[in-house]
Amino acid sequence: MTDIKYTSEDINRIFEERVDYVWEKASLKKGVIVEWVFKYPNGENIAFVEASFPINEYNFDELIGIDVCKKKIKNKLWEICGQYSIITGKKLWAKVKNIKLLFAMI
């Protein structure tokens, strides 16, 4: 077990520097689908998909859907960071520069 700790600020920084994502409106029901990639320090990437759908379609708000998906991504980052630290014994730092978040509406 490791005694490495992450803060919310760490997770936010890692999100900004190690995550690329693309979102689109869902096609069968009102909602948002986000495909995202996490970039490990060794250059390996791992892909995930998150989605957000309103209970009532009349309440659909795209920006809220994207925000919900970002929160889901950050929750997954807690797991990724913890696993990385347990395996390597090191803290995962966000040292990648010039990564741009990709936004595409399809």
Summarize the entry for a quick read:
With 106 residues, the chain is of the alpha+beta class. The protein is 36% helix and 22% strand.
Write the topology of this structure:
Blueprint: H1 8-18, E1 19-25, E2 32-39, E3 45-52, H2 62-88
Antiparallel strand pairs: 1-2, 2-3
Explain how this protein is built.
With 106 residues, the chain is an alpha+beta fold. It has a single domain, classed as Double Stranded RNA Binding Domain (2-Layer Sandwich). Helices cover 36% and strands 22% of the residues. Strands 1-2-3 form a 3-stranded antiparallel beta sheet. Helix 1 packs across helix 2 (62-88). Mean pLDDT is 86; it is low at 96-106.
Features:
3-stranded antiparallel β-sheet, 106 residues, disordered C terminus, elongated, Double Stranded RNA Binding Domain, 2 helices, 3 strands, alpha+beta
Q: Ends: how far apart?
A: 44 Å
The third-level CATH topology is Double Stranded RNA Binding Domain
Q: How would you classify the helix and strand content by structural class?
A: alpha+beta
Give the strand line-up of the largest sheet.
1-2-3
CATH architecture: 2-Layer Sandwich
Sheet with most strands:
3 strands, antiparallel
Question: What count of helical segments does DSSP give?
Answer: 2
Query: Unreliable runs, pLDDT <50, ≥5 residues?
Result: 96-106
